[in-house]
Specification:
By secondary structure, the chain is of the alpha+beta class. The protein has helices at 16-19, 97-108, 165-170, and strands spanning 10-14, 24-30, 41-47, 52-55, 63-68, 76-81, 85-88, 91-94, 141-144, 158-161. The N and C termini lie far apart (48 Å).
Length: 171
């Protein structure tokens, strides 16, 4: 056991509440697919396994970091998502991590920024994330429509449903 053991992967800061959750970890990748017919976001990784690192600061609280191999803030966005289910024949069936990632990519595709995938050696880390969040992306609930019969490999379409403030107070 070594105190000075070198960590493999990149450290991504996370909130302490997310450190011990059992939610899916979804890593989305933007601006890496080129061509005319392309999706803005691609699912790079979905997993429930995670390696955490805790760093201590003198006279401050500790900070939690997630170790993600190959993480680059220029092209990646990291999200947590609880287990989602779909209703098949009045029975709930758990979605796989890849399906959850594809649903998230479709939902967040409108916020993905358009920029070239290259950068100069003198460029630092980006000041803004690859996916800009907006108030329209805040989901009170998420409705997944069943795919059309011709779209077998395409993920289902998503739409957000606004919940009136009265209903929010009751839940």
């Amino acid at each position: 056991m070594s105190i000075f053991k070198k960590q493999r992967g990149n450290l991504v800061p996370i909130h302490a509440d997310n450190a011990n959750s059992k939610d899916w970890l979804v890593l989305l990748e933007a601006v890496t697919i080129v061509g005319h017919q392309r999706d803005k976001l691609r699912v790079a990784l979905t997993t429930k396994e995670r390696k955490l690192v805790k760093k201590w600061k003198l006279f401050r609280n500790s900070e939690q970091f997630l170790v993600v191999e190959g993480y680059d803030p220029r092209i990646h966005a990291l999200y947590f998502c609880p287990q989602l289910y779909k209703n098949e024949d009045s029975e709930l069936v758990a979605l796989s991590g890849q399906e959850i990632g594809q649903l998230m990519a479709r939902a967040l595709e409108g916020g993905a920024i358009d920029k070239p995938p290259w950068y100069e050696p003198s460029d630092g880390a980006p000041k803004e994330p690859v996916i800009k969040s907006s108030p329209a992306m805040e989901f009170d609930s998420l409705v997944v429509d069943a795919p059309l019969s011709g779209q077998v490999n395409k993920p289902a379409a998503l739409r957000s449903v606004t919940v009136p403030d009265k209903q929010k107070a009751n839940t």
